[in-house]
Amino acid sequence: MIMRLRLKPHKINRSLAGNAMIFTMLAFGAVFMALPMVYAVNNAFKPLDEIFLFPPRFLVRNPTLDNFQDLMNLMANSWVPFSRYFFNTMLIAVLGTLGHIVLASMAAYPLAKHKFPGAKLIFSAIVLSLMFAGEVTAIPNYMIMSWLGLVNNYAAVIVPAFVFPLGLFLMKQFMENIPDAILESARMDGASEFQILWKIVMPSVTPAWLTLILFCFQNLWGTTGGVFIYDENLKTLPYAFSQILAGGIARTGVAAAVALVMMIVPITIFIVTQSRVIETMTSSGLKD
Asked: Closest Cα to residue 224, out of 77, 89, 81, 98?
């Protein structure tokens, strides 16, 4: 007689103590990661005597706005108005981010949903380009911008941002998870490839391009223009702040205020897009 064993499905249950331990570990990790941000905020409101205090205090005892007042005074006395630096930074960050999202999406769509000769080779080159640091491509980028006559122009910073390889890689990986049946149905209804891309594909990969907005904008927000921009009227906000901080140790309080000011915009964008950014890291997309 053959005996058949029936295996009952085993359910994994965590005890109350296990849940409490996991929660404690996660809370400790969250607090640890938030410490640098909390310290930067407190530093911005510390008077100079607390900033130079040793051993340093983590929390401010006598908060003051003197650091921000000194920063405003320095910016008011600059040759180029503060508003001009801010405008230059916002223009570069917004145009560079929008251009990157559009081009990355248009390039990723055929790689993900159309088969053509050389597609795998192109994608392999894109993946390979992710391995190179910015210092490696700095000289080639400058030579290309010089040949195009874009040096000392906003475009010298904006155009390279259009071809940031991470965006193309991320968009392609998400677009591959969109069911082909949906796209075929749209083609049968007479939709063009551009209509399919912007009305079907892009809404389906919203977490991906919101994540790209965060990464790309943060990268461009912190750029100084480097060797590409020489005209003072075209300089960015980080460049202006770097010149202020060159004043030495006497401007330590101003440096703390600058650090907080530069953090505000990227943090605000992250707060707005955080739910979709987390979804990008955890979701595997749509399935047939």
From this structure: 89
This prediction has a pTM of 0.76
Give 288: exposed, middle or buried? Use CB within 10 Å, 0-12, 13-18, 19+: exposed
CB under 8 Å to 288, separation ≥6 — which residues? Answer: 179, 180, 181
> What's the CATH code, domain 72-282?
1.10.3720.10
- Taking 50 as the pLDDT cut, the residues of the chain under it are 1-7, 284-288
Domain boundaries, given as residue ranges, for the chain: 72-282
DSSP 192-230: -HHHHIIIIIHHHTHHHHHHHHHHHHHHHHT---TTT--
Within 8 A by CB and 6+ apart from 208, the residues are 170, 171, 173, 174, 280
Contact indicator for 175, 186 with CB cutoff of 8 Å? no
Q: Give the pLDDT confidence of 122-176 residue by residue, as tens digits.
A: 888 888 887 877 777 788 888 888 888 888 888 888 888 888 888 888 888 888 8
